[in-house]
Amino acid sequence: MKRCFDTLNPLVAGQTQDKKDKRRQIFSEGPHVCMDNHFSGDHVMDFLGEHGWKATVTCRRDRLPKNCAKKHFHYLKDAPVDARSCAARFENPIVAVKHVKQPPNSSKKDYSLIHVSMQSTGSTNISTVNALQEVGFYVSQRQKGQGETKRIWGIETNEGRQTYLKLYCVVDKIDQALQEWMVNYITWRW
């Protein structure tokens, strides 16, 4: 994550830029990054928050935020699918909020960490920094088919999950372009 930050931070307006770097500062504020659980953890979220960036990350069960209670099966890597886990359904997402204030003379920025867990649709743990204004539980309508075969149903969701799904789909589209359409990108991964 540090390598990505060091590459993109000079593109934020007001940040120092090397004299040899001819790129324009195209971001008015630190960008909002979306990452998979390989990059989750308190140290990553604190680093991004201190620099004023926004992030939405899936959070592994063994990397829940520090001082969060690890009860029942939320901390297990593999929870068995049985009557107990199927019954673990919450009317509202579990939300942990931490506002971090920096000393007045510090160059670091204040930030807000929000962790959302929503067991009813799977082991969906989402951690965010500076990304969510509110978190509420609601049902989103889905539909498939047309005419007499049209089906309509609802899926439980919240703002953390929706933000992640909308942002992370870009990674899936790039993967599809690489694999199926013979489009090439130069990236750190490939």
Report how far apart the termini are: 16 Å
Helix tally equals 4
Query: Structural class of the helices, strands and pairings?
Result: alpha+beta
Sum up the overall morphology in one term: globular
Q: Give, in order, the helices and strands.
A: HEHEHEEEEEH
* Approximate strand percentage: 15-25%
- Poorly predicted regions are none
- Please give the radius of gyration in angstroms: 20 Å
Largest sheet: 5 strands, mixed
Strand order in the largest sheet: 1-2-5-4-3
What does the average pLDDT come to?
Answer: 78
What does this structure look like?
There is one protein chain. By secondary structure, this protein is of the alpha+beta class. It has a domain of 102 residues. The chain contains four helices and seven strands, in the order H-E-H-E-H-E-E-E-E-E-H. It is globular. The two termini are 16 Å apart. 22% of the residues are buried.
Write the layout of secondary structure elements.
Elements: H1 2-8, E1 32-35, H2 42-50, E2 54-58, H3 83-87, E3 94-100, E4 111-118, E5 124-129, E6 137-144, E7 151-158, H4 159-180
Parallel strand pairs: 1-2
Antiparallel strand pairs: 2-5, 3-4, 4-5, 6-7
Feature tags:
4 helices, alpha+beta, 190 residues, five-stranded mixed β-sheet, single chain
